[in-house]
Write a structure and sequence with these properties.
Elements: H1 3-10, H2 24-35, E1 46-51, H3 54-68, E2 82-89, H4 95-112, E3 116-120, H5 123-128, H6 130-138, E4 145-154
Antiparallel strand pairs: 1-2, 2-4, 3-4
Length: 175
């Protein structure tokens, strides 16, 4: 089996991370993989925001937990020290699909580099707030973007879970 297929089969969402920082050179490779995701008509209407600064990371965690309805103190990022936030131009009809492809590339690239990941939702709701719009503005982003997802990144604290059995009757053939 090819190494790419093997990585696809063995990648899992990890929900417990060590606090150890990820070297920037590895984050750069993961981000680059995200920029190579397929996009409708090659428009590349997605952006990626890297967050490793602890104060902002913790602020996002609190906002995400509040949106999710969790009690104060719960970390929906499971202690991951880094996150990559994927957003897509709001006007783009294929924004969710294109952003999802970016997220997939980020998670597979991370797995290839020995970095654990997990897709964390609620980016859409975060970036609909004034706080989210102001964060984009502070980065010089003036167009309207919709949050697609957060890619939590870090070193797994524990073993990777095994792949669950594949459900039957999910593939149909017309020959």
């Amino acid at each position: 089996m090819s190494e790419v297929l093997n990585k696809m089969k063995t990648r899992r969402s990890i929900r417990k991370y060590k606090p150890d920082p990820i070297p920037q050179e590895l984050l750069d490779q993961i981000v680059e993989a995200g920029t190579y995701a397929a996009s409708a008509m090659g428009r590349q209407n997605t952006i990626i925001i890297q967050v490793t600064e602890q104060k902002l990371r913790d602020e996002i965690v609190k906002k995400n937990a509040k949106i999710g309805g969790w009690e104060e103190g719960f970390d929906p990022f499971y202690g991951a020290p880094a996150m990559l936030i994927v957003l897509a131009k709001k006007e783009d009809a294929t924004r969710i699909y294109d952003g999802s492809l970016v997220m997939g590339n980020l998670m597979l690239a991370a797995h290839e580099l020995g970095i654990a990941s997990c897709w964390i939702h609620r980016a859409k709701e975060e970036f609909e707030t004034e706080w989210g719009k102001e964060l984009l503005k502070s980065l010089g982003i003036t167009e309207e973007y919709e949050g697609i997802g957060h890619c939590a990144l870090g070193y797994a604290d524990g073993e990777y879970p095994p792949a669950p059995e594949r459900k039957e009757n999910r593939v149909f053939y017309i020959r």
